């Protein structure tokens, strides 16, 4: 058994018409103490055959936290039946956990942190119509399922999340009411509250549960198979009107963070999508501002952190949203730096180790089609992209009035370490040392400022404690 193939979970393409003089900056000048990096690689990690090699690769990249999306329909008894099974649906023994159990056990053995997102599609018997896998899932059935999940995996899961992209019609329906107002936010709220109660029923006294898991773009008012914009969805889930006044009938939700998928378009990580209710990596302040207003209204606790739980940059052969492989390494590092520089962001993420097969055009998933992601560190044949090398040693280079500002991370570092920074100047064929030794902080982060105005590219070298020398991707300066 394997997990449901990942369909395109957002319709972004349709919604939307970067002389040596160097000095290291002290660790105290960095914007944050660090952020968790979650990695999601369902094809490899949910395969008994591929899992060992994938885990070994992720270890080498410095990963020790996984996001796992568990689709309810994958593990439920009789998922294609319209009749509810006559078994105790709170009993874990009545589910087929398959490779989910094996992966969670492997992560637990490695002492890795696991975020488990329990999501639709769902068994037919748990829907309002009993004819599909996404229409108005029954909250009580979901509560029972979450109780079973909690009883089975409470010792292996550090952080829970409920529903993948509930503002997208592939995962939850209906998204819209007949009068063109959003329907999915309140459906999701009921599911989230029921899921939380289910974990409590599993004897998890105070479960740490994320809310949201929203896709990045959508609409405020429409009908049919379209996403609800994430800010509009947030307002609906928290019973807020457009001016953030909360309905008196709704209580505050005990979520520990808002999860979001801040994908964007090839224009670059700082691109600001025009609709103020959309949230991409370049417009994270829209989400934090909305959360602050929601907290002021009493809908959630104040200062709720943001978890970027799914993210990546597409490369060719994707035809709609591709950037070059070299730019993927540049843009991904800049995106991580954007997240790191925002003190409200608690987690960044990478979606896919190896590219999916190419499927249909963006948006076809809502009609049952398959759309693969090409956000991996490797092509589908296993050949590494520049990002494979850049992910271990992310580096950003941005022009300043006095030269360039560099920011980087040694992801595998388990404490303070040192890196070598290389630079290639205009007209030169080879790189030379810009800084032989730059010291990171205890989390592996470092910064450097240089007046090397004629520089055209930079790279980082790092020698691991075992003596292996790693070189990151060649990074060209990024200009906003």
Fold and architecture overview:
The protein has 480 residues and is α/β, with parallel strands linked by helices. An eight-stranded parallel β-sheet has the order 2-9-8-7-6-5-4-3. The chain has a four-stranded antiparallel β-sheet with strand order 1-14-11-10. Strands 13-12-15-16 form a four-stranded antiparallel β-sheet, with no helix packed on it. It folds into two domains: 34-392, Glycosidases (TIM Barrel, Alpha-Beta Barrel), CATH 3.20.20; 399-471, Sandwich (Immunoglobulin-like), CATH 2.60.40. It has helices at residues 12-15, 42-45, 51-60, 72-75, 98-109, 139-153, 184-201, 230-237, 284-296, 325-341, 386-392; strands at residues 22-24, 36-40, 65-71, 113-119, 159-162, 209-214, 257-260, 306-308, 345-351, 395-400, 403-409, 418-425, 432-439, 445-450, 455-463, 469-471. It is globular. The chain has eleven helices and 16 strands. It is 23% helix and 19% strand.
Shape: globular
> How much is the average pLDDT?
92
The span between the termini is 45 Å
Q: Name the strands of the widest sheet in spatial order.
A: 2-9-8-7-6-5-4-3
The share of residues in helices is: 10-25%
Q: Indicate the multimeric state.
A: single chain
By secondary-structure content and strand pairing, the structural class works out as alpha/beta
CATH-defined architecture of the largest domain: Alpha-Beta Barrel
SSE order = HEEHHEHHEHEHEHEHEHEHEEEEEEE
CATH superfamily of the largest domain: Glycosidases
Largest sheet: 8 strands, parallel
Number of structurally distinct domains: 2
Number of helices: 11
Here the CATH topology of the largest domain equals TIM Barrel
Over all CA atoms, what is the radius of gyration?
22 Å
Which residues form runs of ≥5 with pLDDT under 50? 1-11, 13-31
Q: Can you identify the CATH class of the largest domain?
A: Alpha Beta
Number of strands: 16
Content of β-strand: 15-25%
